[in-house]
Amino acid sequence: MHSEGSISIWFFIGISLLGNGLLILGAGLYQLVHPPAEPVVLFALHANVWWGAVLAVAGAAYCYHFRP
Amino acid sequence: MNRLLSLAVPIHLVHLAPVDAVIVIFYFALVLAIGFYLKRRSNTSEDYFLAGREMTAWIAGLSFLSANLGALELMGWAGAAYQYGILAAHWYWIGAIPAMLFLGLVMMPFYYISKTHSVPGYLKLRYGESSRALSAISFAFMTVLMSGINMYSMALVMKVVLGWDINFSILISSITVAIYVGLGGLRSAIFNEVLQFVLIWAGALLIPILGLIEAGGWSNLRLQIERNASAEYTHLWGTLGSFNSNPMGIHWTGIVFGLGAIISFGYWTTDFLVVQRVLSAKDLRAAKMAPVIGAAFKMFVPFIVILPGLIGIAVLPMKLVGESAAVAGGGHSYNEVLPLLLARYCGPGLLGLGVTALMAGFMSGMAGNVSAFSTVWTYDIYSALFHKNANDRQLVRMGRWSTIGGVAISIGTAYLVIHFLSIMDYVQALFSFFIAPLFGTVLLGMLWKRATAAGGFWGLLAGTVSSIAMWAWVKVDPSALRYVALSPYARDMAENMYRALWSWILCVVVTVVVSLLTAPKPVSELRGLVYGETEIPSEGELPFYHRPVFWAGAVAVVFIVLNILFW
Asked: Is the ipTM of this complex over 0.90?
């Protein structure tokens, strides 16, 4: 939904994905440098790095495409 | 789940890092910002209660699905998958897909063309005021109670998962929901449901991916499930030949006729909580496409709900148990499988997103109930019974006040449930009493011209009363299960399936008999309401790939393939 003069819902979705993605990516990169004492299972895959990056890229694309 | 949670284990399941807390706060800030932004676009009753009827098929479809994708649903069905195996997927496939497609292709044109604001509103147009009053009062009452149960459940889950104080969770969630629904109405609820849908996938999708990697792929996962539980846990239909050959204690007739034909059709086609989302569509084609889009996504929800339950059987080092055993032994219950996997695979950041997805699910559940309550209260009770000449401004004002009132009653319900836990079981049972008969009444109203006002009212009443009577019969005399559910081995879920089937049949029979004995409505009063007297607008020269029926067919094919694949 994106009627004249209004902000699309997809823009809000983009903000959410971008913000969360950057925060998760940042936390993942920090853990790369400072590995935790009690890592989660499959820590070696660094899921928060690549998943955070995926969310951030998708969020940025949504923000750009549906910008007000 | 709630009995366990109320006696919660003293340690909480996960610990949030500062970055997780920031993600949670970011979500609350965004939700409130959306509410304040949308306030200026909610000035008329059409804006407030039907989101201006300008939603695209995608938004209406995702919201339609999302209204049913709450956190209780996620955690509960993941737990059910751990307990019963892949059989739990029936509630996502045969228990949803055919009904959603039927709503889109067959029923939506009548709802949409009649320009009704609600399902009770349709009953008023088709059957008259008495059927509307019966349906509206029961719906409003149950909806606001369900909202309170959502609130209570969220508070308890937050207590167990994060160690949060129950009063704090109730306060935060109720204030947030009251603000964003009160300000923006249905549009705000829909925006947040779509946001919740994305957050749930973003927060939960990693669990099955990492789980499958740890288990070594689907084939190895099946082997581990067979070793830790039994081979029956990975078959969808193969074990349903008798009541005692599967973990759920159910026969295929209960799944096909009780769940697939009655309960799911009743819920997905007449529960105003979900139908309201589709009524907000911008045109008839969007209204028909929305349930089809919802069905397409619904088919894949088991990937983030059922699969984690199965992964839990394979990889978790501890054996999860039932609620009472967990309380007595201090272990973890089935319903904790999703938070346990979240803690297993998700480090800082991802954990915050997962917890946020759960919160978003709970709040969205509350908001959905409150916005539906507000609409039914305003249109079908307040302006129908108390203030027949209310103008548009008064309707919007009443909508805002009833939203706040609905949240206040929900808070009261939440605290009532804290003190009288058994209320929760009764409320959930009560909710199921109305759904199956209502489907019979609406379906006959749409497809059979001869159905009369008296037939509709007495059929609805007979179906509802019989459902309550069967439930009470089994409560008083458990041996009655052999009659109600056709087997003494039937479990609760099987009993629900058969009770729904019998109450629907009784509703239909009474409606037909009374209708044939009473004078029919003039044909001129049935235009736009009944098949055969309603001109469905043509879809014109649309290419086939823009037609709802084409996509419904594609969804149906995938649905059949999935059922064969996991037979």
From this structure: yes
- Please judge whether A40 and B345 are an interchain contact, meaning their C-beta atoms are less than 8 angstroms apart: yes
Query: What is the Cα–Cα distance from A6 to B47, expressed in whole angstroms?
Result: 14
Put simply, the answer to whether A19 touches B26 (Cβ < 8 Å) is yes
Question: How many domains does chain A divide into?
Answer: 1
Condensed to tens digits (0 to 9), the pLDDT of residues B241-257 reads: 777 777 777 788 888 88
Supply the range of the domain harboring residue A13: 9-65
Prediction pTM value? 0.86
DSSP string computed for B481-533: HHHHSSSTT--HHHHHHHHHHHHHHHHHHHHHHHHHHSPPPPGGGGTTTSTTS
Give pLDDT tens digits for B462-490: 999 999 899 889 888 888 888 887 777 76
Inspect the interface and report whether the beta carbons of B19 and A3 lie closer than 8 Å.
no
Cβ–Cβ under 8 Å, residues B343 and B318:
no
**Containing structural domain, residue B172:** 2-432
pLDDT range class, residue B350, cuts 50, 70, 90:
very high
H helices, E strands: number in chain B:
26, 0
State the Cα–Cα distance between residues B332 and B320, nearest whole angstrom: 5
Classify residue A13: in a domain, yes or no. Answer: yes
Q: What is the CATH number of the domain that holds B77?
A: 1.20.1730.10
Q: Which of B194, B202, B352 sits opposite A55 (nearest CB)?
A: B202
Cross-chain Cβ contact A40/B353 below 8 Å: no
Q: Per-residue pLDDT for B1 more than 50?
A: no
**Chain B interface mutation, best of A24, A32, A42, highest count of B Cβ atoms under 10 Å:** A24
What's the confidence (pLDDT) of residue B422? 64
In this structure, what DSSP letter does residue B540 have?
T
Which site among B13, B14, B19 would you substitute to test the A interface, given the most A Cβ atoms closer than 10 Å to its Cβ? B19
In a domain, A4, yes or no: no
Q: Is residue B36, in this structure, part of any structural domain at all?
A: yes
- B332 pLDDT above the threshold of 70: yes
Asked whether residue B455 is domain-assigned, the answer is: no
